[in-house]
Design goal:
Elements (H helix, E strand, L loop, with lengths): L4 H5 L15 H9 L13 H11 L6 E3 L6 E3 L17 E7 L4 H12 L2 E4 L2 E4 L2 E5 L5 H14 L3 E5 L3 H11 L5 E5 L4 H11 L3 E5 L2 H13 L5 E5 L4 H17 L10 E3 L5 H13 L4 E4 L4 H14 L13 E4 L8 E5 L2 H14 L3 E6 L6 H6 L5 H11 L9 E4 L7 H8 L2 E4 L7 H6 L6
Parallel strand pairs: 3-6, 3-12, 6-7, 7-8, 8-9, 9-10, 11-12, 14-15, 16-17
Antiparallel strand pairs: 1-2, 4-5, 13-15
Length: about 450
């Protein structure tokens, strides 16, 4: 078990300098005990104290990086079982299995399809992370050609899958600069795989038959000087995967059990494409750090990326857009003015409906701390006063010749007071964004 906050505090300099970002050394010690901050944040801690507190400063689940540069995939370093307790930090990596037994034309086509799996949702680009090349054919030439094709045709991170360390070593002569994940290290080959990982400074995937064997393997590999590990089990049934992933997470977080304190890797069972999506969704929720699947149709991947985006959004910091004037279409001084909150999902929903209406309009987003319309109104973040202030501060009066503003139908109650506060005539729009196109088309000419 880790040290308590008070035990950690005894080894800190007790300067209360605040340079660590906390008001006192005791507050810093409490956060250190909760694994929410690194010891390196304290600039005055002694080397002796560092040695004593090293285990306390380590995250319960190690952070492992696959790849390099902007596209690198970081997994692990999670601190809670449930998102509402704090937040989840490193989104599940979504990857795709390509077997080297396919023809080069089939591999190239599949890589091209995977590269195109990019979407824009609520103003953010969401995309996949990984291509896993498996030495299914047991043929060195096939494997090396497949790896070379992935390197030349895609910028996604790589995983190289083969139980033959020598074959992986030859592949790494091509791929080492991309820092791929090599997999699997098992009870039969872990020494050779650990040596390969250490030699090339690569993350290593470890596979065990059960949690007991997996814990022994990670301990043995760690003793060989390799710590960037990703762990996986051989089970095939979804229920078994779910149980073991949950148990692994619980042991790492609640018991600080170091042999299982690593990111997890799961392979989705092939076959039915609909079942594959369901299984991948379950694994993203609980608690796979990397999910490898076969299907790569856009209809399969978009819901998974959306699910991941929602789960790994900080619940205490909703996605929000800048509070400002947004122009949709070729606006002029006669264009309608709509007001909404700066919650991303709300804004982009309204924007898409305004675009659908084909009527150029201004959309003013009010700073409601990223809350939706009704939530912001209930929390007094979207009020007549705040809307009136936004109308004035944004300078919309200089852009239009009329003085009419459209507010969401759900906050029609604000119309009277908003007219008093702003001097603008207030029109009550539809309650649902889907009603915006017909509303704008039927809107009378603005005076």
């Amino acid at each position: 078990m880790g040290l308590s906050g008070l035990e950690i505090y005894k080894h800190l300099p007790k300067k209360n300098c605040k340079e660590c970002g906390f008001p006192t050394c005791l507050a810093f010690a409490m956060q250190l005990a909760a694994k929410k901050v690194d010891l390196s944040k304290c600039p005055y801690v002694t080397e002796e104290a560092k040695e004593i507190l090293e285990s306390a400063s380590q995250p319960p689940i190690k952070l492992v990086t696959i790849g390099t540069g902007e596209n690198k995939l970081e997994v692990g370093k999670e601190t809670v079982m449930f998102r509402h307790e704090e937040t989840f930090y490193h989104p599940t990596g979504i990857g795709f299995l390509i077997e080297d037994s396919l023809t080069l034309e089939e591999i190239e086509k599949r890589i091209s399809e995977i590269n195109q799996l990019k979407f824009t949702r609520v103003g953010q680009e969401i995309s996949v992370d990984l291509i896993a090349i498996e030495a299914k054919s047991k043929n060195k030439e096939n494997f090396l050609k497949a790896v070379n094709l992935a390197l030349s045709k895609s910028k996604l991170n790589l995983a190289l899958i083969s139980g033959d360390p020598q074959l992986l070593k030859e592949a790494l002569s091509l791929a080492k600069e991309r820092r791929p994940l090599i997999y699997p290290a098992t009870s039969d080959n872990f020494k050779e795989m650990a040596q390969l990982s250490k030699e090339y400074n690569l993350p290593l995937g470890v596979r065990g038959k059960d949690l007991e064997e997996l814990a022994k393997l990670t301990s043995d590999i760690s003793s060989l000087g390799v710590s960037d590990l990703v762990i996986s089990l051989e089970e095939e049934k979804l229920l078994s995967k779910l149980q073991n992933l949950t148990q692994t997470r619980r042991l790492a977080l609640r018991k600080l059990y170091r042999p299982l304190g690593y990111p997890t890797l799961s392979f989705v069972s092939g076959g039915n494409p609909y079942q594959e999506v369901i299984e991948a969704g379950v694994l993203i929720c609980k608690y796979s750090s990397i999910v490898i699947m076969k299907g790569c149709e856009p209809w399969q991947i978009l819901p998974l990326l959306t699910l991941r985006q929602n789960i790994f959004t900080d619940p205490q910091k909703p996605l929000q857009v800048e509070a400002k004037i947004n122009e949709v279409g070729k606006v002029d001084d006669k264009s309608p003015v709509l007001v909404t909150t700066n919650f991303s999902l709300t804004y982009f929903t309204v924007e898409s409906e305004v675009e659908a209406s084909k009527i150029p309009s201004y959309i003013i987003t009010c700073n409601a701390e990223g809350l939706s319309v009704l939530t912001a109104w209930a929390a007094e973040k979207f009020t007549a006063e705040s809307i009136a202030k936004t109308l004035k501060d944004t300078g919309i009066e200089e852009k239009v010749s009329h003085r009419e503003v459209i507010i969401p139908g759900y906050v029609a109650v604000l119309s009277g007071k908003l007219e008093e506060e702003s001097g603008w005539k207030v029109r009550v729009g539809p309650k649902e964004a889907s009603g915006i196109p017909s509303y704008l088309k039927n809107l009378k000419s603005l005076s």
